[in-house]
Design goal:
The protein has helices at about 20-25, 35-45, 60-75, 100-115, 135-145, 160-165, 190-200, 240-260, 260-270, 300-315; strands spanning about 5, 15, 15-20, 50, 80-85, 85-90, 95-100, 120-125, 150-155, 175, 200-205, 275-280. Helix 8 runs antiparallel to helix 10. The protein is of the alpha/beta class and about 325 residues long. The strands form three sheets. The protein has an eight-stranded parallel β-barrel, surrounded by four helices. It has a two-stranded antiparallel sheet with strand order 1-2. Strands 6-7 form a two-stranded antiparallel ribbon. The chain has a single domain (about 5-210, about 265-300), classed as Alpha-Beta Barrel (TIM Barrel). Bound molecules: NADP nicotinamide-adenine-dinucleotide phosphate.
């Protein structure tokens, strides 16, 4: 296992974290509570000590399940719980919107503490930038929560460096959570170097590109109900075949050169490029089993060059993760 330090936390965190969006069910075709709790316990048994969730994942469901799982497991003080704030929802209208107002954040923190059955949150992240609230003000609200002892470390997610600049005028930023995986590389040119320079830990999400890089994806895979991969442009033909071709070539490369599967290879890529922690989403007890295959080896510069070459030769119509961005509120 590899560990890293996050400013504000007195424990070192593992460089892989369990993501629990799918455990909330919403946009993943539903959830099974008992199976989810077993998944969280299996990750903790493997030594993973950081769990990422959010109020919006299943509109409270993911946080509730994480809270139950941690209460049953014990050892709360050995774990880092990361959750988020700044999205509001209307389930009847099936609508999620950004809202980083102090009023919304203050309501959310108390709801999250209750659902997570805890009196502090280790890492509290603004989920998406809200253009209607100055970033300095949002920073100030989170600084107040830290002073009140409700949170230990302040984070933002999906923020640009400019937005982080404004936010840090009134907050000590410890964590940034952007998307990052072999296929979604946008942060290499701005966010990764910015965070490295400022000493902000990167807790990157989507290491498996929503399962594409898991080794379990195939062209005839069917996605149940509201599973977001039904609308994900990467999973639409003819583009889907291009990504699957890239996966087969990467899979062969990982096996021939390192004797590893595509999943540990994809996570090793994220860590090798400098992410502090790679978040990887699971919902079945075996999902975190490959953790042990991720440590004790590294990718070199020539491997990184080969990965780029494979992508160039297989994907002519690449697309990013932008489809996931929730809308802003309308100005009143
Ligand atoms: P991901 O980690 O790229 O992919 C997760 C999916 O991969 C799983 O749901 C599962 O899909 C499959 N998988 C996982 N382990 C596997 C294994 N061992 N073998 C085969 N398949 C496996 O995607 P993600 O869940 O979207 O992202 C990870 C986490 O990042 C989220 O849970 C969330 O905590 C966070 N996140 C944050 C944001 C943000 O805006 N801040 C956005 C997205 C995600 P199936 O169960 O369908 O097979």
């Amino acid at each position: 296992m590899e560990y890293t330090k996050i400013a504000g936390l007195d424990k070192k965190v593992t460089r892989v974290a369990l993501g629990t969006w799918a455990i909330g069910g919403w946009m993943w075709g539903g959830t099974d509570e008992a199976e989810s709790i077993r998944t969280i316990h299996a990750a903790l048994d493997k030594g993973v000590n950081i769990i990422d969730t959010a109020p919006v994942y299943g509109f409270g469901r993911s946080e509730e399940i994480v809270g139950k799982a941690v209460a049953q497991y014990g050892q709360r003080d050995k774990l880092a719980l990361a959750t988020k704030t700044g999205l509001e929802w209307n389930t009847e209208a099936n609508q999620v919107r950004r809202n980083s107002s102090a009023k919304r954040i203050r309501k959310e923190i108390d709801d999250s503490l209750k659902r997570l059955q805890t009196d502090y949150i280790d890492i509290y992240q603004v989920h998406w930038p809200d253009p209607l609230v100055p970033f300095e003000e949002v920073g100030e609200t989170l600084t107040e929560l830290k002073q009140e002892g409700k949170i230990l470390a302040i984070g933002v997610s999906n923020y640009t460096p400019q937005q982080m600049d404004a936010f840090t005028a009134r907050a000590e930023l410890a964590v940034c959570q952007p998307p990052y995986n072999i296929f979604e590389r946008g942060i290499e040119t701005d966010i990764l170097p910015y965070c490295r320079k400022k000493g902000i830990a990167t807790l990157t999400y989507g290491a498996l590109c929503r399962g594409l890089l898991s080794g379990r994806m195939s062209r005839d895979r069917k996605f149940e109900g509201d599973d977001l991969r039904n609308v994900d442009p990467k999973f639409k033909q003819p583009r889907f075949d291009q990504y699957l071709d890239a996966v087969s070539r990467l899979q062969a490369f990982a096996k021939d050169n390192y004797g590893k599967g595509i999943l540990p290879f994809a996570v090793r890529f994220v860590l090798g490029k400098g992410a502090s922690v790679a978040l990887w989403g699971g919902r079945r007890p075996g999902d975190m089993d490959p953790v042990s295959d991720i440590f004790g080896w590294k990718l070199g510069d020539s491997d990184m060059a080969e990965i780029d070459k494979i992508l160039k030769e297989t994907i002519s119509d690449s697309v990013g993760p932008e489809f996931m961005a929730p809308p802003a509120r309308e100005k009143s």
